[in-house]
Write the structure tokens for this entry.
Amino acid sequence: MALQARSFANVLVIGVAGRLDQDNCEAFRADLMAHVERSAHDGGAVVLDLSGLEYVSSAGLRCFMLASRQAKAQHGRISVAALQPMVAEIFEISHFNMVFQVFQTVREALAAASNEAVAAFDQA
Amino acid sequence: MTMRIRFWGTRGSIPVALTSFDIRDKLARALVEASGRSFDSFEEAHAFASTELDFSITHTFGGHTPCVELDLGGEEYFVCDMGSGARPFGVHVLARQARRPATVNVFMSHVHWDHIMGFPFFGPAYVPGTKIRIHSCHDVCEQAFRLQQAAPCFPVEFNQLAASIEFVKLEPDQPREIAGLTVTPHLQLHSGDSYGFRFEHGGKRVIYSTDSEHKLENRAEAENFAAFFRDADVVIFDAMYALAEAISVKADWGHSSNIVGVELCQMANARHLVLFHHEPANDDATLHGLLKEARRFEELTRSGEPLKVSAAYDGMEIEP
């Protein structure tokens, strides 16, 4: 699962697509953690754009949890945006919507992160 | 012969009970639901409560700690764990035996307090002629049973019990036939180790898997448990937490979630998942919510035959 990363000011938007389950979660976790380590620190933020994510299992959700923990440890932030209906429901069912800030769109997530980030997004 | 499973205790960690405020709130919610309705008899009101009200209003999941009976329809009794549910189970045994001594086969997942605390109140242990065989993979099983009845913790020493009590060591992953029931223990991740049991009788397969944490990053572990649960008619599963809780603040506490229960049962092609070992802090509405969420997750992720999902409650009976 290749991650697509784009920067908007101090926020990194990472696109996640396809299915995330036990078959590919370890490679995904390593890639995601590297991005989080570099970007979600000292006020910086990561937004996970899940518009292309079709399914996530418990093993995949664990990767999100580890990323959240890492971001918090570095005084950074992480949120999720643009969830497909099924993934949004899985977030609710598993109570991950209580762990993550969930936004309808990437733009809303950027606006919540910083004025500079949403301005950069609007200009792109 | 039909097998029946009776849940005498379904709560984890410590017994809980409804408070008078809980009962008042349930009554108030029922009255609101019945607004504008009139009932001419108790039967009409009963039918309304039974068919139209939410389970969390009309029932309670109950508060006894683990004790689950497998009734094979024969003379001998089979029961998993001796939590506080062992007290009502003992009342049931005494009533059914009508002064005849019983033979009771106990299978211990592990010896944490919530799984042994009912034994000092297990009536048949005080009846001469009763035979109790306590099966376990733990070397410390007998020591734990004796310790909890030692002074100054309890007034009756273990040695004073009238029943003949035997401790039988089981070996992990080694099937053993006990009075017509085949049982296979399996090691689980829990502080001090716990063991799940796979029971087979008359073509039916029942799994009792409580106090068991599953590490989601480990595919081999998931496949190992899917093999243990393979084609089970019923899987009684430790679903103490929601997934987010189980893998964050309560990671390494030795318990699992409703979501992982659904995933493992789907991998194993099991037929019926029973959520078990409920968190004592969860009220009936919360537990019912976790059940509904597990059912919805099963619908969303179903690829083959439907998996039935239930939440165990004290007094529930099912046939595999």
Observations:
- Chain B touches chain A through 20 residues (CB under 8 Å).
